[in-house]
Design the sequence.
């Protein structure tokens, strides 16, 4: 129920995406470096084992949030680990944090 | 006649007692003498992974063929060493414990291991399990979400389940338990998530917790002054994720500890941080540390000292010494007197850039200039790479040749530390980044399969591995053979004298597990699990695109 609600909320906010604040991007970068880089590569470069996030479609935030919260293939569900703000920051970093 | 009958009666009584009571401590201690059984992780308390069996040998191995295969219905990867007792094989992975009839390959029972789908988020290096332990009619195993479980050997029914730690705080378990002097010992994983490592002792009958030996020293404890006056020891790592060896005569268990947490040593100060990256000699009844040797003080590199601690008898300076040997992740091969912890040899078996040598007077590594650079947050090209000069894939030791046989790594990593943030339960606690160097020559092997002299650390022969290092343990036999596996699925037999591949069989997935050999009705068999998984799969997943996942057990014998 909680997950469904959160997902619906993200769905609604997809239309509003576009530009990101630098603070949000740098917050996302820190979360990424700590938790995601071990598989997805430092600053999304050299993802030896995982999906190359530089190729993630920037118009598919719902999909991004779904995978993050529910997991996919070898990626475990991280839904309980991050709050809404942190997930938004991660999305900002993935879309706009590095050269694509 | 009466005397004869009474002797016969006594013998019958002995035979019945043996059949009823299942494994005794004596059977565990003598594992290898009755080749119908494989009762311990490492094929003996000494972790030699050596069997004297020689029916399958350099001449006959060309007739080696599969006799049965059983699916393990598991996509997470197979790393386990099976055990065999009285015609039944016991196999574990992250999902199942399985009992198999060794004669036919038929599954007798299987028991599911239930953990929440979120659990893998605290597992750094592959959702897997390294194997069971057997004792007194029970099968013991650990679970991904940090429980220790006992099952009935006959039925697979759970007899007890004890919680070692809370997985949401970063703790997980993949290692095989050890039964030593009547105590069930387990370790713990999670040094990438800010855990405080420990070894636990359990009552095998009831699952009652007997003792815990934390592997980071608190203030006031011996070694407590090797941590700064803060709480860093509480998240200091020193996990214990590979099963120890045991010397029943000395009644000492030898157990290695993992890397420090976080990898960035900043919160840990410029102190040694006992007992991270160390080898411990522990009393199995109490958990008391009798001696320790720290391979990498202050560890800023992820230099686990967890790898198999192989027991052997070596001639050192003309004297026979009972030693414990380890091919450490940090690139040095340590030989230590296992009675007193005295360092006898510490020579590099791979390219090492982080230290120039080990000072044999102090027993400490002498760090190169990279030690200062890395602590100043500069990039370094680190040899060995972050996966080590050798990873967990266990080496074998043949007591007759006195040689170690190991799968080693040959790769650097560009490496630098990142600023440390506060500990958050369940999140990574590492603070570093790493990548492959850009200038790596294309023809440089990624690793070697090799025979190594323990005292010189020099190879007798090397098999260069061009595509992937091996992530499989080694089995050595009296037939002059070494068995190991490849990530691409080939299970291979190699001439132990020359390193030449004599035989191979392509299994259905990658082989990153632990082969065993055993007998039934006087015939020799070899068993290995196939099923891509573990860190070797994680770091090579894209390159391994055409090797499917999926676990199974393969058993081989000579065709008549």
Sequence:
């Amino acid at each position: 129920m909680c997950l469904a609600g959160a997902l619906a909320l993200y769905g609604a906010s997809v239309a509003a995406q576009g530009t990101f604040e630098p603070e949000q991007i740098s917050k996302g970068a820190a979360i990424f470096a700590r938790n995601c880089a071990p598989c997805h590569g430092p600053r999304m470069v050299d993802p030896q084992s995982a999906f190359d996030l530089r190729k993630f479609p920037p118009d598919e935030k719902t999909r991004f949030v779904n995978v993050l919260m529910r997991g996919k293939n070898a990626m475990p569900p991280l839904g309980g680990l991050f709050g809404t703000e942190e997930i938004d920051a991660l999305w900002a970093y993935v879309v706009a944090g590095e050269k694509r | 006649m009466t005397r004869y009958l009474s002797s016969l009666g006594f013998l019958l009584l002995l035979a019945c007692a043996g059949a009823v009571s299942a494994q005794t401590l004596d059977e565990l201690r003598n594992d290898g003498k009755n080749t119908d059984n494989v009762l311990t992780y490492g094929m003996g308390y000494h972790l030699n992974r050596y069997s004297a069996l020689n029916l399958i040998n350099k001449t006959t191995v060309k007739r080696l063929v599969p006799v049965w295969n059983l699916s393990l219905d598991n996509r997470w990867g197979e790393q386990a060493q099976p055990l065999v007792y009285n015609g039944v094989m016991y196999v574990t992975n992250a999902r199942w414990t399985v009992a198999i009839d060794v004669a036919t390959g038929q599954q007798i029972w299987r028991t599911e291991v239930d953990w929440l789908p979120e659990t893998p988020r605290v597992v750094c290096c592959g959702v897997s399990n390294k194997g069971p332990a057997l004792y007194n009619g029970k099968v013991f195993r650990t679970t991904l979400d940090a429980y220790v479980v006992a099952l009935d050997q006959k039925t697979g029914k759970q007899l007890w389940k004890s919680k070692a730690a809370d997985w949401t705080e970063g703790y997980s378990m993949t290692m095989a338990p050890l039964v030593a002097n009547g105590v069930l010992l387990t370790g713990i994983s999670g040094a990438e998530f800010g855990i405080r490592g420990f070894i636990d002792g359990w009552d095998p009958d009831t699952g009652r917790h007997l003792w815990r030996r934390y592997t980071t020293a608190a203030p006031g404890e011996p070694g407590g002054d090797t941590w700064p006056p803060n709480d860093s020891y509480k998240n200091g790592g020193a996990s214990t994720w590979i099963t120890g060896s045991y010397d029943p005569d000395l009644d000492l268990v030898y157990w290695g500890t993992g890397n420090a947490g976080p990898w960035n040593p900043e919160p840990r100060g410029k102190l040694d941080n006992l007992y991270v990256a160390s080898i411990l000699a522990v009393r199995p009844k109490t958990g008391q540390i009798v001696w320790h040797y720290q391979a990498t003080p202050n560890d800023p590199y992820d230099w686990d000292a967890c790898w198999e601690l192989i027991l052997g008898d070596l001639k050192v300076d003309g004297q026979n010494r009972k030693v414990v040997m380890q091919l450490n992740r940090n690139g040095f091969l340590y030989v230590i007197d296992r009675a007193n912890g005295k360092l006898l040899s510490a020579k590099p078996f791979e390219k090492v850039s982080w230290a120039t040598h080990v000072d044999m007077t102090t027993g400490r590594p002498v760090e190169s200039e990279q030690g200062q650079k890395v602590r100043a947050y500069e990039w370094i090209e680190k040899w060995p790479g972050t996966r080590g000069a050798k990873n967990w894939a266990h080496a074998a030791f043949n007591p007759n040749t006195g040689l170690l046989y190991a799968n080693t790594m040959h790769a650097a990593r560009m490496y630098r530390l990142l600023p440390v943030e506060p500990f958050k339960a369940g999140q990574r606690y590492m603070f570093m980044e790493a990548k492959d160097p850009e200038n790596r020559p294309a023809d440089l092997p990624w690793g070697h399969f090799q025979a190594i002299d323990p005292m010189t650390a020099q190879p007798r022969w090397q098999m260069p591995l061009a595509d992937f290092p091996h992530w499989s343990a080694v089995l050595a036999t009296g037939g002059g053979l070494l068995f190991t596996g490849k990530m691409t699925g080939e299970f291979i037999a190699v001439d132990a004298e020359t390193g030449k591949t004599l035989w191979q069989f392509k299994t259905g997935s990658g082989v990153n597990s632990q082969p065993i050999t055993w007998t039934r009705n006087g015939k020799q068999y070899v068993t290995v699990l196939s099923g891509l998984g573990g860190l070797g799969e994680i770091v090579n997943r894209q390159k391994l695109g055409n090797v499917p996942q999926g676990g199974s057990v393969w058993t081989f014998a000579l065709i008549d």
User: Anything to note?
Assistant: Residues 2-21 of chain B form the longest helix (20 residues). The two ends of chain B are 44 Å apart (CA to CA).
